[in-house]
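Notes from the 1:1 (GR / supervisor)

We went over the backlog. Supervisor wanted to see one worked example end to end before approving the batch request, so GR pasted a single chain during the call. The sequence is below; no edits were made to it. Supervisor asked that the structure be written out right there so they could see what the output format looks like.
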Amino acid sequence: MRHLTEGSVSAAIANAERVVDFEKALGLYHEQWLQETFASNARVSTVFNWIYIWGHWPVIAVTLVWLARRHTAIYLRTRNAMILSGAIGMVIFATFPVAPPRLAPLGMVDTVTVSSHAYRVLQPPMFTNQYAAVPSLHVGWDLLMGVAIVIAARRMWVKILGVMMPVAMTLAVVFTANHYIVDAIAGAALTMACWFAVRWWTARRARRLQPAGT
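Structure output shown during the call:
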């Protein structure tokens, strides 16, 4: 899969420079300042490293199992939105490779690898696309889980957790130098577009299957 979606290093670096220039034009380029200001603190860095490592796939797995057992309709919509956004993301990764801040010449530190190699062992670089910064599916898929939790949960504290998840992941991907701010925005926009597209398609299909005259 890596060889199908990973572009050349030179193209990824060049595109990373374009992303940085785009952020600067919009006044959004704060990644270096954020990492230097907050992630330079060992305790803060550790917290966001753990959010990045354990706040993605484990959270997705637990959420999907819960939804599948308790809220089937929301599970199906969430699953299908993940599949659709993942497919679109792979096309973007293949056609527009972007080096993340940790691999771009920006002077930022890969805090996850510096503190622990656990995450790189769980997802070995040889099997993952290292130049898939845009869009951030870490943020996008955590946002999908958060939306599903807010809709499905009954307890207020669980709903609040659903709201906090994508916010925490957005901070984590930036502080750890794994994504740019615009990556997070793109990931959120993509997955929400897919969420609403799946909802529209499901409703349309239900209307077509509904017996005439009902």
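Supervisor's comment: The first helix runs from residue 2 to 5.
Batch request approved.
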